[in-house]
Design a protein that fits this description.
The protein has about 325 residues and is an alpha+beta fold. It has 11 helices and 14 strands.
């Protein structure tokens, strides 16, 4: 666990973008053996947004980024670094971040991707805040972006009901006097369970071939029951100890931004932590699981409700393929 020291890093602005195309539970029930009721009861999802053919992760990332820059009053030329958290890059190389950096014209900025499962958004936030705290960067654009729909097997009801496409972004900079700041972070992984969420086809372990296509290795695979057990066992005690190590009782956190993977998982974790339901931000019903983008999208929508007061503490947490997990606390 690390407490941020040095230059306080603050959220200057946020943005988001989701594709216009929507697929509902009823639509999916016509494709696989499922129903709206079954999906809602098990996941809390009602609909999800899907990219149009040819709409890439870099495209949705750029749109969210431009809104975040405008919200922050920052130009692309002001940026020192662009970080994109994604599990569905346009290509393995080049990464999404360099493409977005070029699309924006952020000529002074470096750029790199973070690929840490759905926890990538939290990892990217922590890296950006650390870079500002150390003084090596002054302004950083952080994006969580996913176009997972081409990587989903739309005949597999265990996965196709879950995922949606979209992007969220934030601009981080040195905090002004009395401004918000990141307080602490803890990032972890249990690599012994790396096989619980996988995409196995097309790279070194399973180079693309007719056989890998026939075996369906070019789609997201998930051991849903094992993931559910892992999260329920690991995440609540991890979050409780993270808060305590940060000098904060869990009940003193005003707003909780869980990765929007499954409403039952979120509600069960909140209950075990003794969190009041009204403190937990949930928007999985509209967007499904947008992976590394989910906490960014949830924050963007929440900030537009104008409910955050000075001094409120926000906790962002996620888990994902790896199995990675982590948290970061922000004081408004």
């Amino acid at each position: 666990m690390g407490v941020f020291s040095g230059v306080p890093a603050s959220i200057m602005g946020t943005g988001m973008y989701v594709p216009k195309k929507v697929i509902t539970n009823e639509d999916i029930s016509k494709m696989v053996d499922t129903s709206d009721e079954w999906i809602r009861e098990r996941t809390g999802i009602l609909r999800r947004h899907l990219a149009e053919k040819g709409e890439l992760t870099s495209d949705v990332a750029e749109k969210a980024a431009r809104e975040a820059l405008e919200d922050a009053g920052v130009t692309p030329e002001d940026l020192d670094m662009v970080i994109v958290a994604t599990n569905s890059p346009d290509t393995i190389f080049p990464g999404v971040a360099p493409k977005v950096q070029g699309m924006l014209g952020a000529n002074r900025a470096g750029a790199f991707d973070v690929q840490s499962g759905c926890t990538g958004g939290v990892y990217a936030m922590a890296m950006a805040a650390s870079g500002i705290a150390s003084g090596i960067w002054k302004k950083v654009l952080v994006i969580g972006a996913e176009v997972l729909s081409p990587l989903v097997d739309w005949t597999d009801r265990n996965t196709c009901i879950l995922f949606g496409d979209g992007a969220g972004a934030m601009v981080l900079g040195a905090a002004e006097e009395g401004g918000g700041r990141f307080i602490s972070t803890e990032l972890r992984s249990d690599g012994e369970k790396h096989d619980q969420i996988t995409f196995r086809g097309g790279l070194v372990e399973n180079p693309a071939s007719q056989e890998t296509v026939e075996k369906g290795l070019h789609y997201v695979e998930m051991k849903g029951n094992e993931v559910f057990r892992f999260v329920n066992r690991i995440i609540p005690p991890f979050l409780r100890q993270f808060c305590l190590n940060s000098g904060i009782e869990p009940e003193a956190i005003e707003w909780w931004f869980f990765h929007q993977a499954n409403q039952r998982i979120i509600e069960r974790a909140a209950e075990r932590l003794g969190i009041q339901p009204e403190k937990v931000i949930i928007n999985i019903d509209e967007y499904g699981n947008t992976s590394a983008a989910s906490v960014f999208i949830a924050l963007y929508e929440f900030l537009r409700e104008d409910r955050v007061k000075k001094g409120d503490r926000l906790l962002f947490t996620a888990f994902g393929a790896g199995m990675t997990y982590g948290g970061i606390i922000y004081e408004a």
